[in-house]
Automatic annotation (TrEMBL):
It comes from Pseudolactococcus chungangensis CAU 28 = DSM 22330. One of its GO terms (biological process) is DNA recombination. Belongs to the plasmid mobilization pre family. This is Plasmid recombination enzyme. InterPro entries: Mob_Pre. Pfam families: Mob_Pre (PF01076). GO terms for molecular function: DNA binding.
Length: 73
């Protein structure tokens, strides 16, 4: 059975680097002992074109939204 978890949290841009490292499992210390890092290569991203840096991706999305609204005016 498959399932998805969605979570909304208010963050500052500086926190995105740490959150990205946690999400991509770049650290060796995991709070969940059931994580099998040997299977991490099977993970896939639902959003195409993302980098491994959440802050860079976030800035790119915000700039695209701002450019869209500027062109619209």
């Amino acid at each position: 059975m498959s399932f998805a978890v969605a979570r909304m949290t208010k963050l500052k841009a500086d926190n995105l680097v740490g959150i990205g490292n946690h999400d991509q499992r770049k650290t060796t210390n995991h709070s969940n002992e059931d994580i099998d890092v040997s299977r991490s290569h099977l993970n896939y991203d639902l959003v195409a074109g993302r980098t491994n840096n959440f802050k860079t991706d976030y800035i790119k999305v915000i700039l695209n939204i701002l450019l869209f609204h500027i062109k619209k005016q």
